[in-house]
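Notes to self, Isochorismatase family protein:
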Amino acid sequence: MSVTTLAPRTALVVIDLQKGIAALPTAAPTEAVAKKAGLLAAAFRERNLPVVLVNVAGGAPGRTEQSPPAVTFSSDWTELLPELGQQPQDHLVTKRTWGAFPGTDLESWLKSAGVTQIVLAGVATSIGVESTAREAFALGFNVTLAIDAMTDMSADAHANSVSRIFPRLGETGTTQEIIALLQPSHD
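result:
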């Protein structure tokens, strides 16, 4: 299924497009993904719709079989990529788990802004984006996933999320399809 409609109060939520993450190897170039996310952000701002920029500043404390080695983060690790064109009215969320809802004000902020639908973009498709999509769906938000404005460290993981998981959580579409739905003729 592709994206069919956007609610009047839809927010863009961009996951982890930050300098520290952008330095990691990804299936699709992070620069191209950030450019598409930036186009989405500009289109949402032009329509006075909320833009939420999420960064990650650590991890959940639980033990896993694939815990990454202890890493010392650079001073600019959490800085958002310039392609996003961060604006003062954008809502910034700093998370410490895979998804953007636990331990943050995201749910209450979205609801207080009257948001009923979110469009997701960012990195990593199978981790931060998918976790946030699952959480949003469980909280009752309509979810749209901008599949060309996201990437993953693994092409297989990205493909699995896009083809098997996302259709169960919402609708998928390209950056251009989503922007087209924001045009005045679709009000």
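- Helices lie at 19-22, 30-46, 106-112, 125-138, 155-169, 175-182.
- The chain has a mean pLDDT of 93.
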